[in-house]
Amino acid sequence: MTLQKIKEKKAHIGIIGLGYVGLPLAIEFCKNGFQVTGLDIDQEKIDLLSQGESYIKHISGEKIKHLNKEGKFKGSTNHTLIRHLDCILICVPTPLNKNREPDMSYVISTAQKIAPHIVKNQLIVLESTTFPGTTLEVLIPELEAGSGLKAKKDIFVAYSPEREDPNNKKYSIATTPKVIGADDPKSLELADSIYSFIVNKTVLVSGTKVAEAAKLTENVFRAVNIALVNELKVIYEKMGIDVWEVIEACSTKPFGFMPFYPGPGLGGHCIPIDPFYLTWKAREHGITTRFIELAGEINTLMPDYVIQKIIFALNREGKSLKNSRILLLGLAYKKNVDDTRESVTFKIMELLEEKEAVTDYNDPYIPQIKPTRKYKQFAGKKSVALKKINQYDCVVILTDHTSYDFKTIANQSKIIVDTRNACGNIKSNKVIKA
Fold first, then answer.
1. Is 270 a catalytic residue?
2. Which of the listed CATH numbers 3.10.450.10, 3.50.50.60, 3.30.70.2190, 3.40.50.720 matches domain 221-433?
3. pTM of this prediction?
4. Catalytic residue among 87, 270, 394, 423
5. What is the pLDDT of residues 193-219, one digit of tens each?
């Protein structure tokens, strides 16, 4: 039986989607003695892994080489291998479509690909962030229709949301509690058993809907609070108050306050997307999520606020935005990673070029822009060297990588628009906070 195989570490794990969530999972399971097959539609990723190379900056090539050396890992694009696996973890994207509605195409296509090859007693766990009801209403029907097998009887299905925070030095997969939900006791027991090998603590909830809602709630909480400080930033600026100093003062209170920080807009694979999954599902139940939608409106307007700050900075120097050379510092959505998913830099670059500014970017983690679904026009654009920073009319700090020497950048730049308070301790009339 699958449970016994899990307990004896004889269960063969399959991970579908070898990105920022799937690859770290594969490493953890291999490290804990399991045989892992990683499946992805991107042959380039599979080739790099087979060569012992990493395509994610904060995951070293040494870790990949160790996987190959131990012989515990195999990468493939062949989904027929599903029939040889005991536990299948699905870690595929769940983006928004152009109407800001959930795009379930990756989950559905994955389910359709694997359904003809799944066999009795397999455990299938969805990790992708999604709306409450996805496992029951989307995943299970596709699996049952394509396989002829029944959930809770022939196969076992659970939901366990990813909580990956790329390059977080404090919390890893092992030290972050793992929420697990299933709609029958056997599925919950199997999922708990397999994840217990790689995390210090599992948190079992009563069903898949609760686990799906928990993930959304975590990120809605963050999105709403970021919107709040973004709005406060605009308000306090009009009053001549530095919002960063206000937050620092508030943070000295040991209870009742949790610091959130303003920025140029939301980025990453969760916060800009997840709240809209909930608002979409709520409409199905006749509920309008006014509070969440207001937060989303505030956050999505922040790039326009940054553009106005750039225009103000240039005007102060007697220049117009048209034909001005703008250098954007940071393409990654957060510092010290090479992850560009939903990066606000793309939006700001697009807005600037629509207004006929000339844009370049620098990011030590991203030498060249790869093709994206939304901003195809920037594919192939390369990071420029900082040695010619004084040739730009304006420098905009969008990602505060720790490798940046902001004092030198401030000294060499003509004028800076700082969206991250990176130059907060630098006294210079060149710096304009945004």
1. yes
2. 3.40.50.720
3. 0.91
4. 270
5. 999 999 999 999 999 999 999 999 999
